[in-house]
Design goal:
359 residues, alpha+beta, Hsp33 domain, CBS domain Like, 3 domains, six-stranded mixed beta sheet, globular
Length: 359
């Protein structure tokens, strides 16, 4: 008790913190940890995506030798900037396997999902967001969702993108036309989502997302994503970097950070060659005294489930549902989650029993 009183007097004398304020802070930290634990438990028990198996043993051996996927969230230059570096080689490979994507489709949706993952640090509390890219080019666009619990899912609007001639580079601009970039946020406690939309300017996912933040949220932000392919078209490395200027940042420091950001390596190649997140953060930005505030997992996953799709089917018009059940009654109803590619087969006899119970 005596030590506790001395400590509280020390806080009061040196920092102006009263005993009441001190215990308030402790309570806030405790509540934050409890909420984070609840989010993790919710995620574990509600993630029902059917994971497609990656069968290429050579690829699996390569991935096994790399640094574990993960995101390092950091601050630097005395809090004038925040950022996140994400290693997502397994992440992109799981996305590709689940959607059974070709090389071009993997490059587009992969970079979109990496951007979605890098937006997780911009969330406040428990939140979900949707990044949508609508274009009249051959790729048509995509929709990606990211959640504060640490999962990302996404889908292409054009599953097999038409290619008129052999690709000469991985510049994706020819596959994007005029269109819009929109971000919709679903914060906890709000009944209505918040959406911001801007015109596509660069025909580059990372640059257009940075343009969105500047125009819609008035925040200087930069994204850099990269996916490395081997000669067989396999994803051997993937990752991305996010940097954001905080209010009041010094103009000269901003220029130096921009120069450092511009000197970034190809993150796909970096992680493919067994590079680490720590070496990038403390090497590339060493003059700004970076400090990693949080390490966290981010995975390609989806909260869909067979039960969810079954409930949607049971909510169909009764006549329509009876027709579905009576047509080829021995064959299951097959449903596909567009966001993760999971295929659920629902027995029609079970549907009939539940339909009769419902009425």
């Amino acid at each position: 008790m005596y030590l506790c009183e001395k400590f509280c007097k020390f806080l009061q004398r040196n920092y102006g913190i009263t005993m009441y304020c001190f215990f308030q802070v402790v309570e806030q930290i405790k509540n934050s940890l409890i909420r984070l634990l609840e989010e993790k438990i919710f995620f574990i028990y509600n993630s029902c995506m059917i994971k497609a198996e990656i069968k290429d043993q050579e690829l699996l051996s390569h991935i096994g030798g790399l640094e574990k996927d993960g995101m390092s969230i950091f601050v630097m230059a005395d809090g004038q900037f925040r950022g996140a570096l994400f290693h997502g080689t397994r992440f992109v490979n799981q996305m590709r396997a689940n959607h059974n994507l070709g090389i071009l489709e993997t490059m587009i949706l992969g970079q979109a999902c990496l951007c979605g993952a890098l937006m997780i640090p911009t969330m406040k509390g428990k939140e979900r967001l949707r990044l949508r890219y609508d274009t009249n080019g051959p790729a048509a666009g995509f929709s990606v969702e990211a959640d504060s619990t640490g999962y990302v899912r996404g889908c292409l609007f054009q599953d097999r993108i038409p290619v008129e001639k052999p690709l000469e580079s991985w510049d994706l601009a020819p596959f994007f036309g005029p269109g819009t970039v929109s971000v919709t946020r679903f914060p906890e406690g709000r009944t209505e989502p918040m959406t911001g939309t801007v015109e596509i300017k660069h025909k580059n996912i990372a640059k257009d997302l940075a343009w969105y933040f500047l125009q819609s949220e008035q925040i200087n932000t930069a994204f850099n994503t990269s996916i490395q392919l081997d000669k067989k078209g396999r994803v051997t490395g993937a990752g991305g970097l996010f940097i954001q200027t905080m209010p009041g940042a010094d103009d000269e420091v901003i220029q130096h950070v921009e120069m450092a950001f511009g000197a970034s390596p190809s993150y796909g190649q970096w992680f493919s060659e067994k590079g680490s997140r720590e070496d990038i953060i403390y090497g590339l930005f060493r003059e700004f005294n970076p400090s990693v505030a949080l390490e966290r997992d981010v995975i390609f996953d989806c909260p869909c489930s067979k039960d969810v799709f079954e409930s949607h089917i049971l909510n169909l018009d009764r006549k329509e549902l009876e027709e579905i059940i009576e047509t080829n009654p021995d064959e299951p109803v097959e449903t596909v989650c567009h966001y993760c590619g999971s295929v659920y087969r629902i027995d029609k006899k079970e549907l009939k029993i539940k339909l009769n119970k419902k009425n």
